[in-house]
């Protein structure tokens, strides 16, 4: 099993090997070796679906026409309205909550649980710009800290973790294991934090509707309610329900 210490050893060994190649071959060959290794590193880290740094579950083996709807970044001021929407369409969702926001809005957290939805861990403070480069101590603070707050507020220990923007690095998987968490990615998203037109969000997401897939939307943006409603309407039209993992 890969631990944080094993990751450090692997990283140092890989870097040493690259430096040796660069020194031994010199010139362009050495430069290209280093460039390829670093580009591969960046590609793996910043690509949410990549598996070398641990698997992120993107779908579940369901035979029923149901999807897993996940709503990220709450709780925010629109939580009550999101819950009303879900009730109206008889949908259930997984809320990936940010720990610091959850502790500021305990009423929202209680409402999510009371209305039959699930709460999972989306870090303590959601440092989306720097999470991919965080070292083990900071990752542990973000991941374990998020779980701790949510467990206190809900009485239930989170089982799933979602990385901000899906970015992970080699330390993420061993720390998730330490915290008893699995990583959940997504099979379909419509970039709904940037796109304000629900139709354009759906254009990307709808072709991916299949039994068991994980769908990603966000709350807290001016367009969030319209996007979530558009997804719920499209799911209904295509004969899909929602379920929890
Ligand atoms: Zn997020």
How many strands, which pairing sense, and closed or not: the largest β-sheet? 6 strands, parallel
The Rg value, from CA coordinates, equals 20 Å
Strand content: 5-15%
- Secondary structure category: alpha/beta
Shape: globular
CATH architecture level-2 label of the largest domain:
Alpha-Beta Barrel
Q: First CA to last CA: what distance?
A: 25 Å
CATH topology title of the largest domain: TIM Barrel
CATH homolog superfamily of the largest domain = Glycoside hydrolase/deacetylase
In percent, how helical is the residue content? Answer: 40-55%
Instruction: Encode the helix/strand succession as letters.
Output: HHEHEHHEHEHEEHEHE
Number of helices: 9
Bound molecules: zinc ion
Number of domains: 2
According to DSSP, the number of beta strands is 8
Q: Runs with pLDDT <50, length 5+? A: none
Give the CATH level 1 class of the largest domain.
Answer: Alpha Beta
Mean pLDDT: 90
Q: How would you characterize the overall build of this protein?
A:
This protein is an alpha/beta fold and 245 residues long. It has two domains: 4-46; 66-242, TIM Barrel. The protein has helices spanning 4-25, 27-46, 79-88, 99-104, 106-114, 136-154, 172-178, 198-205, 224-237, and strands at 66-74, 93-97, 118-121, 160-161, 182-183, 188-189, 214-218, 241-242. The strands form two sheets. Strands 1, 2, 3, 6, 7 and 8 form a six-stranded parallel β-sheet that branches. Strand 6, helix 8 (198-205) and strand 7 form a beta-alpha-beta unit. Helix 8 (198-205) packs across helix 9 (224-237). The longest helix has 22 residues, at 4-25. It is globular and about 65 Å long.
């Amino acid at each position: 099993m890969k631990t944080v210490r094993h990751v450090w050893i692997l990283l140092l060994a890989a870097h040493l090997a690259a430096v040796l190649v660069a020194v031994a071959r010199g010139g362009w060959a050495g430069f290209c070796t280093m460039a390829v290794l670093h580009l591969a590193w960046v590609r793996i880290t910043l690509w949410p679906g990549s598996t070398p740094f641990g698997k992120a579950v993107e779908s579940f083996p369901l035979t029923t026409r149901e999807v897993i709807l996940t709503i990220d970044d709450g709780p925010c001021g629109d939580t009550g309205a999101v819950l009303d929407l879900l009730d109206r369409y008889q949908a259930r969702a997984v809320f990936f909550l940010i720990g610091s926001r959850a502790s500021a809005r305990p009423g929202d957290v209680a409402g999510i649980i009371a209305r039959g939805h699930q709460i999972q861990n989306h870090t303590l403070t959601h440092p989306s710009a720097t999470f991919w480069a965080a070292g083990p101590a900071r990752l542990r603070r973000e991941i374990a800290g998020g779980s701790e707050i949510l467990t206190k507020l809900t009485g239930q220990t989170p089982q799933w973790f979602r990385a901000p923007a899906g970015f992970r690095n080699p330390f993420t998987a061993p720390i998730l294991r330490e915290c008893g968490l699995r990583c959940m990615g997504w099979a379909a998203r419509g970039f709904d934090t940037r796109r304000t037109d629900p139709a354009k969000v759906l254009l990307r997401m709808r072709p991916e509707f299949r039994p068991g897939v994980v769908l990603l939307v966000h709350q807290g943006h001016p367009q969030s309610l319209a996007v979530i409603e558009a997804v719920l309407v499209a799911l209904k039209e295509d004969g899909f329900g929602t379920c929890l993992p």
